[in-house]
Amino acid sequence: MIKAGIIGSTGYAGGELARLLLQRDDIEIKWYGSRSYIDQKYASIYQNMFQIVDNACMDDNMKALADQVDVVFTATPQGLCASLVDEDILSKVKVIDLSADFRIKDVSVYEKWYKLTHASPGFIGEAVYGLPEINREKVKKARLIANPGCFPTCSFLSVYPLVKEGLIDPDTIIIDAKSGTSGAGRGSKVDSLYCEVNENIKAYGVASHRHTPEIEEQLSYAAGKPVTISFTPHLVPMNRGILVTAYASLTREVSYEEVKAVYDKYYADEYFVRVLDKDVVPQTRWVEGSNFADVNFKIDPRTSRVVMMGAIDNMVKGAAGQAIQNMNLMFGLPENTGLKQIPMFP
Length: 346
Known about the structure:
Number of helices: 12
Strand content: 15-25%
Strand order of the largest sheet: 8-9-7-10-13-12-11
CATH superfamily of the largest domain: Dihydrodipicolinate Reductase, domain 2
CATH topology of the largest domain: Dihydrodipicolinate Reductase, domain 2
CATH architecture of the largest domain: 2-Layer Sandwich
Largest sheet: 7 strands, mixed
CATH class of the largest domain: Alpha Beta
Distance between the termini: 34 Å
């Protein structure tokens, strides 16, 4: 039995962690942490947990939590995990952080984009970027995981094979992404109100979204050189889902079969990455509620470019599901344990 604690359990990602973990017989959630709802019944905040969870919410005392559990998930705002984690905690418990605190290796880049002073830069080098499809062996040995962002997960999986194989010029990459409103979190914001979002679509974080350096850093590792991209996210009126449409210039003329073989090279053995059939485009509704990432591509010979596409559920593969995928690897379990949910439709 793996004992788990969740700090930030009442946010959307924390709630999704609880929903997925509670379906397993090999996991016991010992701690539902929430600074905003201390001593309140968890099921009074998420009524879907009525008669399923009797626990009350606790605080974010990671030191006390580390003495009670085997793994801590932090689904918290940027800066909190970095302010809590220390060597004593990491010597006792594995930590999977769903914030951006340990994703970016250059602390100055993190501080520039997130407008925060990093509270524990000494652990950045140790933290493993938790994208299992790329860093599986490192994840298995880690005690601190930086769970990737939702946009970076979908973006990277969509374009990685062609960057890695040198079939596209990485500095010509343009990523257009769409996200459901749950990606903005559960806090009260005017821009997330129903009347603001419904019947509307808008770009936000134009040329300034803080997931940009995370995507660039990971693509730089794949390319073997620094990569600069153009990234623009959009908010669409749906609860869940991310759709990425990325564009890049080809480095040479290629056929469909050649590009398909490249995607298959990297993903044929990946349980959660599905390379779709020719001319089938990814759609968010076909991954909703699941840990799957659907990807595909289309060659545009007229412009000598390729269009790369991907879709994920931002709450699952983009957050909680990927965190559990990482946990499975860290504890020597089959990677898809507890994550075989078939996408919901309708």
